[in-house]
Amino acid sequence: MPNATPAIGSTAQVNISPFNQHGVIDIRMEGRVIHYQATGPFNTELLDSLAIAQRDFLLAAKPQGAWVSIATICISAMTSPDGIARYAAIMAAPKPDFMIPVATAFVMGPDVEGNIIMAQHYRKIYRDIRRPFQIFATLPEAQAWVLAQLPPPAAG
After folding, report:
1. Staple partner for 114: which of 77, 96, 99, 130, CB 3.0–4.6 Å?
2. pLDDT of amino acid 87
3. How many C-beta atoms lie closer than 10 Å to residue 12's C-beta?
4. What is residue 156's DSSP assignment?
5. What is the C-alpha to C-alpha distance for residues 85 and 89, in angstroms, rounded to an integer?
6. Residue 138 domain-assigned?
7. Which of these, 106, 109, 104, 107, lies nearest to 147 by C-alpha position?
8. What confidence score (pLDDT) does residue 50 get?
9. Is residue 156 situated within a structural domain?
10. Which residues, in sequence order, are CB contacts of 108 under 8 Å at separation 6+?
């Protein structure tokens, strides 16, 4: 079924470099929320794979109407300066409207390596693209916030 919405996408399914990816990011959709389960640390090869995995997932899923995203970061949030620059470029690149969430939340608990160091970089990236963004310690907090950012469903 080539037109079926994928249950999950993953950077593990994308290999575009002869160098190994460090980290993995899995993608799934629940209603109007796209969840990213991101296990770091992350390198530029992983971020390049994310750009492709995310594009392919969204092209297949074709979210209808407004949606939001939550990235739950596990183990480590660390990446190099090159990794931050690559993520910033991916986020700033032009995309069709259906590929852009109205808000994004990250879940980075206190046990995630580099959570405080990396938070400032992630905040700047989202501030620069003018997308509402918050970081939370727990998934329920992130879920409540992103759902509150969604416009009410159109009456019909």
Report:
1. 77
2. 94
3. 13
4. -
5. 6
6. yes
7. 104
8. 86
9. no
10. 73, 77, 115, 118, 119, 135, 136, 137
